[in-house]
Amino acid sequence: GIRKFTRNYRHTSLTKIKLIIFKDPETEKVFRSVFCTETSDDPEDNEMTHMRFAAASGEDKFKSGGDKKFTFGSVTLTVKCGDITEERCDAIVNGIKENMDLSSYGAVCKSILEKCGPSFQEECISKMQDIRRVGVTMTSGGKLPCRKLIHLNMDKFANNLDTGLYQVLQLAELNRCRSLAVPALGTGRKGADIHKIKRMIYEAIEKFGAADRILSDIRLVVYKRNMVSDFIVESPKEE
C-alpha cells in the first residue's frame, strides 16, 4: 500500500510515514525483506526506499570495523556508511540533473527536497544557468546541518566524474570549507560500474590532495552498508 501510494503521488504533502515495530528481530527481518528487496520499475524508488528504511532501522551503521580513513597528501578521506543529509560539515555534495529539479534525480536529491522543502527547490532553480554553464554551483545548506550544498551536474559529468568532482573540491576550497561530505555519486543508476566510480572519486581526491589545502576533511558517505566494502578494498594509503 505504501509503495503504491508513493508511486502514484510523488509530490504529495505527506512525506513521512512511520511504521512502529516492536523490537523483535524476526519482525524487523520481515519488514526489511519487503522494503529492501522488493523492486520497482524505477531504480531510484528502490534506492530511496532502501536508504530511508536503513536509516530508520539503524542499518546505516557500518559494523564491519567502523569508518575507514585514507590519506592523500594534505587530505584525509573517511569512508563511512550513513545518510549524507545528516552529516555535520561545512558542505555536502549533491549530484543533480542540470535542470536543478530535486524531485527528478536520485535518493540524495529527494531526501534534500523532503528535508528542505519547496523554498529550497526555488533556490536551486535560480542556479540553473550556473550549473549548465560551469557544471557545478553552490547554494545554502537549507535545513541540513551544513553551511553549503555544492551541486554537480551529472548530465555533464556522469562519464568523467573525476573531472567534475575535482571542480567541486576546488569550489569548496575557494569558499574556505574545511570539511566536505561526498555521496557515492552515480551508484544508484541502473548498470552503474561501481569500481569505475570508485576509481574516479579517488583520482580526483588524490589530485586535489597533492597541494596544501584548507579543505582537509573529506567524507565519502555510502548509504548502503553492503556497498561500503566496494569503496575500501584495495584502496591506497590506509591509516
Tell me about this structure.
With 239 residues, the protein is an alpha/beta fold. It has 2 domains: 2-57, no CATH class; 68-231, Leucine Aminopeptidase, subunit E, domain 1 (3-Layer(aba) Sandwich), CATH 3.40.220.10. The chain has 10 helices and 7 strands. It has helices spanning 2-8, 25-37, 43-57, 106-116, 118-125, 128-134, 154-157, 161-174, 194-209, 225-228, and strands spanning 68-72, 75-81, 89-96, 136-140, 146-153, 179-183, 217-222. It has a 7-stranded mixed sheet, with helices on both faces. The protein starts with a helix and ends in an 11-residue tail after the last helix.
Which terms summarize this structure?
glycosyltransferase activity, Macro_dom, Leucine Aminopeptidase, subunit E, domain 1, 10 helices, alpha/beta, 18% strand
CATH homologous superfamily title of the largest domain? Leucine Aminopeptidase, subunit E, domain 1
Q: Name the strands of the widest sheet in spatial order.
A: 1-2-7-6-3-5-4
- CATH topology grouping of the largest domain: Leucine Aminopeptidase, subunit E, domain 1
Instruction: Supply the number of structural domains.
Output: 2
Helix content: 40-55%
| Low-confidence region ranges | 54-64
CATH level 1 name of the largest domain: Alpha Beta
Q: What letter string, H or E per element, gives the SSE order?
A: HHHEEEHHHEEHHEHEH
For the report, how would you describe the main beta sheet?
Answer: 7 strands, mixed
Cα end-to-end separation: 47 Å
| Helical/strand content category | alpha/beta
